Amino acid sequence: VSNSYVLAGYLAAGFIIGVYVLHLFRRGRVLGRALRERVEILAQASPPPAPGRGSEPS
Amino acid sequence: MSSPTATRATRVVGIAALVTTALVVWLGGWFSPPAVQMGDLVRLIYVHPAMATYCYVGFGLCALGSIAYLWPRTRSRRWDQFAAASAEVGVIFCVGTLVTGSIWARPTWGVWWTWDARLTLTALLLAVFLGYLALRRAGGDPAGRAKRCSVVALLCFIVVPIDHEATSWWATLHQGDTLFKVGQSPTIHGWQLVTMLLSFVSFGLVFAWMVMHRYALEVLEDRFEDDAVVSALVERRAEGGATRSPELSATLSRSATDPRRQVSS
After folding, report:
1. In chain B, which residue's Cα lies nearest the Cα of A17?
2. Under an 8 A CB cutoff, do B231 and A12 touch?
3. Would you write out chain B's pLDDT as a tens digit for each of its 265 residues?
């Protein structure tokens, strides 16, 4: 790319998209981790299955 | 990079987007010939118009999602989530449009910014959809918020056709359509035309990939809000030392074993 304005345009587009993509990944990972922790808390708070219920058929 | 919002579809679209974008950068940056009048500056045509187009597409999808939410027969929280995802990605493309347009304006018009009809309306478009995104964070009950935001999205969308037609309705510095002119052939040919068309494919794939991820994220956020209510209830109960009611126990069991709540890493 010989023109500095063209280079600046390509870099600006790449930067805006790149930063947003990183933001999406980071937000997804943080939310995924928080949800897993919450599922664990809920699993600990829930009562054990009553005898004879929820077990695999033999 | 692993993400809970990634699926097989997002991976396929993402790889296709990377390949086509690399091709557009090579064709647009080096291979395609410079223009007779504009010289090398024509290479910005492979970035700026595609970004502007998908900015409109994003806001258009947001309006469609809002209509589907407001329509009683198709009302579903999913449409509201889709509208939110499309609007946010549309805003990113709108920022890209304004920045790349400004960089292009400096060497061609001699200014970074001018209060031209097209430019002003695009800035207004960005402002109104930023307002829409702010409204989404205002809180309240989810159904009321979704209805309120859907109405506002439709009002915001009115700016899109006015912005698109600004170059034909008013005398503006901004050039008119390059590809699609009614009754006329495109004003771009050869490798320049091929590269420009490929840039629309490339940015379309990037746009689709972003909307898919953002939509999945919106679904996760809603699930997180739902779980937060149950979790807060558990904590309050534990603090008070109260015994659990059968209803709460049933809710907790359902929440912990619900397959939709199992988040893969």
Report:
1. B92
2. no
3. 567 888 899 999 999 999 999 999 999 888 888 887 888 888 999 999 999 999 999 999 999 999 999 999 999 999 999 999 999 999 999 999 999 999 999 999 999 999 999 999 999 999 999 999 999 988 778 889 999 999 999 999 999 999 999 988 888 888 877 766 666 666 778 888 999 999 999 999 999 999 999 999 999 888 877 766 666 766 666 666 555 555 555 555 555 555 444 444 3
Nearest to B220 among A6, A8, A31 (CB): A31
* Residues 6 or more apart whose Cβ sits within 8 Å of residue B129: B59, B62, B87, B90, B91, B94, B156
Which residues in chain A have their CB less than 8 angstroms from residue B95's CB? 16
Find tokens 């296709």 and name the residue.
B16
DSSP string, B113-164: ----HHHHHHHHHHHHHHHHHHHHTS-S-HHHHHHHHHHHHHHHHTHHHHHH
Q: What is the pTM of this model?
A: 0.83
